[in-house]
Amino acid sequence: MKKYIGIDIGGTTIKAGIVNEKGQILYKMVEQSNINNYQVPLINVIKKIAKKITSYAADNDIDIEGIGVSAAGQIDNKNGVVIGDCGNIPGWKGTHLKAEIEKVTNLDVIVENDANCVALAEHWVGSGKGFKNMIAYTIGTGIGGGIILEDKIFFGSIGIAGEIGHIVLKKDGRQCTCGNKGCFEQYGSMTALIREVRKVAGNQFTEINGKIIFEEAKKGNKEIVKCIDSFLDYNAAGIVTLLHIFNPQAIIIGGGVSQQGRIIIKPLIEKVRAKAMPAFFKNVVITTAKLSNDAGMIGAVKNFME
Length: 306
Ligand SMILES: [Zn+2]
Known about the structure:
By secondary structure, the protein is α/β, with parallel strands linked by helices. It folds into two domains: 111 residues, ATPase, nucleotide binding domain (Nucleotidyltransferase, domain 5, 2-Layer Sandwich); 164 residues, ATPase, nucleotide binding domain (Nucleotidyltransferase, domain 5, 2-Layer Sandwich). It is 39% helix and 21% strand. It has ten helices and twelve strands. It has a five-stranded mixed β-sheet with strand order 3-2-1-4-7, sandwiched between helices. It is globular. It starts with a strand and ends with a helix. The site of zinc ion has 5 residues, from loops.
């Protein structure tokens, strides 16, 4: 069976794994990406882990076909260069990922945006298996998405399609990091939920994060339940927009919040049902992602294989 290396570059960790042609992870390692507030440039950490996993493969007589990389930001996937950043990794824009990793590993490298890799992984071996047309999006600091049409990722004209988080849900709404106002991620991301909870219940807690928010909701904290309800309303609005444009068979939701499972999916489905045209709603499955933390690595390998 053929084997590949998958590398997933995120703002907090870099994961590297050996993945076989069936999408199974045989071995993986993790490094912190943010060392002393990026005093060690991220590309150096990436090269280090790339070298480490390649030597591990060599030491264990594992033949590697090549390396798939999943990376944050807008990626020129022909040249493997970061052409737009997400603002939080210093010096990220302009990084020649493909060339740098090829230099230290002597293997072919293909780079793709992380949200597209997650969609590819879910489509291959996750919750999206068997769906020809599906959309996977991740609720996190922002909202990142990948669109699969007729079993293929939809890249758009220059390879950067699928920015679901920047669907405008509120004209002239809240200022977004992209420069526009009123984007989906300003209302439907984890950052947005935390912001709203801080506004109404900030004095009740010293720290607020996703885990605390959902624990409090389960205890019946009314203010927080209301915030979650509004957060789900915006997610439903985003999903309805996607249904009407793409008529997908599945919408798959990833990110930390997806661990809440039915607690968020059930009300979300009801909200989508109330807003979508019936024929679009009837033919879609709305569910949580299956692969969580390993999706980027697996999807990067799938992207390389294709
Ligand atoms: Zn935006």
